[in-house]
Amino acid sequence: MGVGIEVKDLNAWFGKAQVLKEINIKVGANAVTAVIGPSGCGKSTFIRCLNRMHETNPEARLTGSVQVGDIDVYKPGTDAVDVRRRIGMVFQKPNPFPTMSIYDNVSAGLRLNGYNKRRELDVAVEHSLRMAALWDEVKDVLKKKSGASLSGGQQQRLCIARALAVQPELLLMDEPCSALDPISTGKIEELIFQLKAQYTVVIVTHNMQQAARVADHTGFFLMGKLIEYDKTEKIFTTPSDKRTEDYITGRFG
Amino acid sequence: MPSLSRPLSFVRRLTNVCFIGLSGLAALLVLAPLGAIFGYLVYKGIGSINVAFLTHTPRPVGEPGGGMANAIVGSMVLLGLGSMIGVPLGIGSGIYMAEFGGGRYVNFVRFTADVLNGVPSIVVGIAVYALVVLPQQHFSALSGGVALGIMMIPTIARTTEEMLLMVPNTIREAALGLGIPQWRATLQVTLRTASKGVITGAMLAFARVAGETAPLLFTAFGNQYWSLKPNQPIAALPIQIFAYAISPFDEWHRQAWAGALILIVLIVVAVAAVRVVTSRGSMANNA
């Protein structure tokens, strides 16, 4: 089942540049939350702070607290590797492992965490690929074709399957459709809609129509600050902040 | 305004033909020496290769027959020892430079590797003589392996580094994002993605040291008899070829040619075998 998220007083920096300022937000379980805002507003950094990918940049620094389900993400003693295992992430550009077969890609998270019971891996791979709506397209070439041989849209669904295979409690998606054509985008949006039955999903998107289509709640970021966070419908029809209204009506950004 | 759509002039067509011709000629000139060397070796050496040559040890001067079995096996042992030292150290330091790099220490390591690459092989031989042979009090296969291993390190380290740097960062992020521990992500995802180039680097280093004579002169030393003991002098093809080639005996000259041919075949077979074995299970080719 999905879990809720609670972020308190989150500040993040790259070197001396502060990219997130005093973010406070509560995200409900089993819902899709969209994060929108102009380029460079900190929305990608925000979701990378949720699973401790932010700190993989040597310049990165951060203060504040993040609670995801029962994980206190930044409590001293919390293992970043463990956090990332429990919080899945799908990136902007499809990034399958090029030297691995489709099967090995999907099972990578399990295998490389020392899990190698064949039959259970088989089950996990099929289940994840079905969830990602890719099974029918690849079931005959699972071990014959490389992950990199698929089309862009298929690759991104493969990456989603790979993230789902480790059974995360939360799924983060960083502009997962920005490199895809409208048909592939449609498939992934449909998938996100179905995933929310079992997962909490946070999706960063540049595309406001996409946020309106898939998200229950939407947060608007501007220059490192969370300007407004509300039900998606409210954000797109009657936003309470002038800056949100300017952005969604296309006056800037 | 000048028009770009005029028909190709005669001069341009001529330039085009000349350029393609010249680059083709250059490519041919690269192939020619290799073909010539191999052809000449086959011509001179094939006649002396027989079962005895491959299975017997050298006979004293004047006695016909005998072979280089001990040198063939000795070279394999030396190259095996060298690879056991050079490959892990080279790949390890390459990983360090590429993945955990940044800072002065890494620049220093990189600089050292480049300098080591330029150190003449005979100097490596003398250094190993001083560091391993003198304390041990005698020449040994082990010291020969150390000398070859040291010579392999810089090539492997630098190619490993270059190849790892070519792996896009998105691949590392994908692995870390799955909750894979850093060391496993580096070894089983990043290094694996770069494995083709890393293996090519290791093979280049292997082929390069396979023919080295100078560093073996005061380390492995050579041996007229069978010996596989790591702490005893061991025969090696390059040393044997050298000794036979400068001798005044025709029979030995012929055997030197045969030895040289065997050495080249050995390198080609080893490189090809590693390629075949390592390309299995990798998906890089049917992407």
Give structural notes.
The complex is a heterodimer of chains A (253) and B (287). Chain A has helices at 43-50, 80-86, 102-111, 118-131, 135-138, 152-165, 182-195, 208-214, 232-237, 242-248; strands spanning 5-14, 17-27, 32-36, 60-68, 71-72, 87-90, 170-174, 200-204, 217-222, 225-231. Chain A has 253 residues and is an alpha/beta fold. Chain A has a domain at 5-99 and 170-248: 3-Layer(aba) Sandwich (Rossmann fold), CATH 3.40.50.300. Chain A has 10 helices and 10 strands. With 287 residues, chain B is mostly helical. Chain B contains 12 helices and no strands. Chain B has helices at residues 10-45, 51-55, 69-99, 104-118, 121-136, 141-165, 169-177, 182-193, 195-210, 214-217, 237-245, 250-279. In chain B, helix 3 (69-99) crosses helix 11 (237-245) and helix 11 packs antiparallel against helix 12 (250-279). The longest helix of chain B has 36 residues, at 10-45. The mean pLDDT of chain B is 90.
List its salient traits:
heterodimer, A: 253 residues, alpha/beta, Rossmann fold, six-stranded mixed sheet, four-stranded antiparallel sheet, 10 helices, 36% helix, globular, B: 287 residues, mainly alpha, MetI-like fold
